[in-house]
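Discussion board: Methods & Data

I've been asked by a reviewer to show the raw model output for two of the constructs in my manuscript, not just the figures. I'm not sure how much to include, so I'm pasting the format here to get opinions. Each protein appears as its amino acid sequence followed by a line of discrete structure tokens. Is this the kind of thing reviewers expect to see in a supplement, or should I convert it first? Here is construct A:
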Amino acid sequence: MDSIDKQIIQLLGDNARASLKEIAAETFLSSPAVSARIARLENEGIITGYSAQINLHKLGYHITAFINLELSPNQKPTFYPFVKACPNILECNCVTGEYSMLLKVAFPSTVELDGFIGELQQFGKTYTQIVFSTSIEPRGVQLKE
């Protein structure tokens, strides 16, 4: 991967809807050359997908929270299908420390969050933090040349 590949990744990370023409102008390549590079980055698994950033508040999801869950390893075969089926879970990470799972969730209200935590506690002890504000929205890594 060279500096142009990194620049393409950065441009797509900043705006997944950037056109080939826009990327070509920024990288001083032709549109077909940019297209070929993007295809190669996708085939190599470096670019794994494209997404839109959604304003959850405007969709009625006013509560974002992080939930730590103490989960024993033998529960993972049951736990993973449970979390994959829940659309309110934005992220699920296996982490180190006292709690083995860290979930980021979004719900319309604390009542619905509380109900979900009740369901989640079938797997183990939880510790929940509700987000008051977010100073840095989710973003990609800034690649160095």
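Construct B, same format:
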Amino acid sequence: MDRVRLSKRLSRALRHDPGRVGLTLDAEGWASVDALCRALHVSRADVEDVVAHGSKARFELADGRIRARYGHSLPGHVALPAADPPDELFHGTSSPVVDAILRDGLLPGGRQYVHLSPDPDTALTVGARHGRPVVLVVDARAAAADGVVFRRGNDDTWLTDALDPRYLRRA
């Protein structure tokens, strides 16, 4: 099976709409791998291949279970351990919403967490998905010192609940 196509199917089932395929997630976003395979009519080997070799570490496997690590639009939070962020992180967005973000801060919107990038190039790519991109610099060191909790989604994604505008500036 095409890895990208299956990754998108896994994302929809594990991040956004498990009920659509008859899947039930526990409070931390886990589902049985066997149940997922039955629901999507795919093999365990295909699922394991996407987890091991997908372009991003979006999913994790443990004890016969699977979950999406981040990007959920479902209620609740997927528990990920806190991590010490680098001094600066970056957020890519589109130009029409920059003034609102600089006024109100970064909020997760329809997701569980605010997504941040480790470098400006990744943030620029993310921002370009939504129109003319703008990159914001996050003073992660100051935010962490003030008690903001950061988590690693994967090598390209940092997560936090929300960020006050005092930690943000245009790149």
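Answer (T.O., handling editor elsewhere):
This is acceptable in a supplement if you add a one-line summary per construct. For B, something like: The CA atoms of residues 90 and 137 lie 5 Å apart.
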